[in-house]
Amino acid sequence: MRLIVVFIFLFWGVSSFAQTYPVHVQVNVSPPYSFYLSDYVSGSRERVSVTLLNRDVQYSSMPVRLRLTVKGSGYTLLSLPYASVAPLILEPNVPYRLSMEELRPYFDPHNLSGQGLGASGYLKGSRLPEGPVEFSVEVLEYQTNRLLSRAGSAMIFLSLQKPPQLGLPFDGAILAWQEPGHQRALGYGHGSFFRFFFCPRDFP
Questions:
Q1: What is the sign of the dihedral through the CA atoms of 144, 146, 152 and 155?
Q2: DSSP reduced 3-state for 136
Q3: Are the CB atoms for 55 and 150 separated by under 8 Å?
Q4: DSSP code of residue 18
Q5: What is the DSSP letter of 114?
Q6: Is the model's pTM score more than 0.90?
Q7: Four-CA torsion 32, 38, 40, 44, nearest 10 degrees
């Protein structure tokens, strides 16, 4: 019995040690969220930010690449193992924030594989479906593809917002004219006006 307990603790300790990675990853996705994958690395405004931190003080000038995963309702887009990307060099304890130009190759359809319903269409520029989408990034050693980090991820929700619906006045209603003086007497200020009521059609 003691041997079993010792073995369990040893296995637990080895497993815990194996899960310690030298690189920390932070991912953020800023609204407004687009239904098109290419929009996240185009334009003048940064939509996806990825920051890496090499915590291994004995591994200077660490050359790495990223593994990007985009997972939505019934589909997964994943970086190819040997995608054509330039190495990123991480120095110990120096945060490395990727520029849009550095992220763009990872969103290139030629560097991604697709799994699930509609995945090949999304790589060709089709609109992503509504629902939750998770962007996750892992760091790999550039030459060997050895995993150097846990996945950093950010979750967004894609929704086609509908414009509010006019509640009042009703469609086809005839609005009576009110003299400006009558409106001032009621305390509404100068000029004539009409009241409009809108009903939201999207709820959280």
A1: positive
A2: strand
A3: no
A4: H
A5: E
A6: no
A7: -90
3-class DSSP assignment, residue 138: strand
Q: Hey, how many other C-beta atoms are within 10 angstroms of the C-beta on 147?
A: 14
CB 96 within 8 A of CB 53: yes
Q: What is the mean pLDDT of residues 131-156?
A: 96
Indicate the average pLDDT of the chain: 83
CA 172, chain centre distance (Å):
44
The structure tokens listed for 158 are: 């894609």
The residue behind tokens 């994958």 is: 37
d(CA 47, CA 52): 17
Geometric angle at alpha carbon 25, from 20 and 30, rounded to 5°: 155
- DSSP assigned state of 10: H
pLDDT band at 2 (very low <50, low <70, confident <90, very high): low
